[in-house]
Amino acid sequence: MTGSDIDKVIETTARALSRTSSDSIAQAGEQGFPETADVVVWTEQALDLVLKTQEKTEIRSRLESVTDGLQHLLRTVSLPETLSREKATQVFLESLVELRSIVAEDVEAAYNGDPAAKSFAEIILSYPSIKAVTIQRVAHVLYDAGVPLLPRIMTEHAHQATGIDIHPGARIGRSFFIDHGTGVVIGETTDIGDRVKLYQGVTLGALSFDLDKDGNMIRGVKRHPTIEDDVTIYAEATILGGQTVIGKGSVIGGNVWLTDSVTAGSKVIVEPTFKRIR
């Protein structure tokens, strides 16, 4: 094949790939295609703003930078008609004071819940749950405001960095701590109360998906469990279903599989099997 032939193939392929079509990739492009790297940079800036910045002059400078970055990202997605870039930015900025307060309580919960913790600084800088949960809390503000795409990219960045997968739609109460964290999955419609503690490998997931008369998945319904206040869920426990409620103060043991609700103060464990040691 000559250089001229290759040029013809390139031209033909480029023309075919650039044709207007209605497939899923073409539709995705119409909805907006932000650069993932830009979203990651902004996410880390917002994370630093919430977790690390203290001096007023530095805070103001970072606020201006984060605001400009968010405005840029909002231009790359297709916002609902009822949501302007200015409104979305305002919602984010107005949430920061409360976010700082909530995240500070998460840090305290980690310190109080882990005897290996030596300081708040150690928790902020090295605990994967603080990074993952803080990013989710920031993403949830944008998600609730109606911003598409960006919140999901943010929490997927946290997932890749920490091994903790929390959908931006999940509603999480105060003083939340995930010890260790690897493999935790928290679905979109999960509700978590205050002072809840999870261990590695916990799944708060969907049991099944409702279908309409044509067999299509029904979206926008509650599919994931509700975890009430003061619940502890140990490693590798799986709790599924939108109607499943774990009552206040319950303890769910490791490796438990639950698809039914339990009342307040319950203790759920897997019956131990006999092991012979020789």
What does this structure look like?
- The protein is α/β, with parallel strands linked by helices and 278 residues long.
- It folds into two domains: 18-163, serine acetyltransferase, domain 1; 183-278, Hexapeptide repeat proteins (UDP N-Acetylglucosamine Acyltransferase, domain 1).
- It contains eight helices and 14 strands.
- The strands form three sheets. Strands 1-4-7-10-13 form a five-stranded parallel β-sheet. The protein has a five-stranded parallel β-sheet with strand order 3-6-9-12-14. A four-stranded parallel β-sheet has the order 2-5-8-11, with no helix packed on it.
- The longest helix has 29 residues, at 85-113.
- The mean pLDDT is 93.
List key phrases describing it:
14 strands, 8 helices, 12% strand, 2 domains, five-stranded parallel β-sheet, UDP N-Acetylglucosamine Acyltransferase, domain 1, alpha/beta, 278 residues, serine acetyltransferase, domain 1
Distance between the termini: 70 Å
The average pLDDT score comes to: 93
Query: What would you say the CATH architecture of the largest domain is?
Result: Orthogonal Bundle
Rough shape? Answer: globular
Give the full name of the CATH homologous superfamily of the largest domain: serine acetyltransferase, domain 1
Overall tally of domains: 2
Largest sheet: 5 strands, parallel
Work out the strand percent.
Answer: 5-15%
Low-confidence stretches: none
Give the topology string: H per helix, E per strand: HHHHHHHHEEEEEEEEEEEEEE
What is the count of DSSP helices, taking H or I runs of 4+ residues? 8
Order of neighbouring strands in the sheet with most strands? 1-4-7-10-13
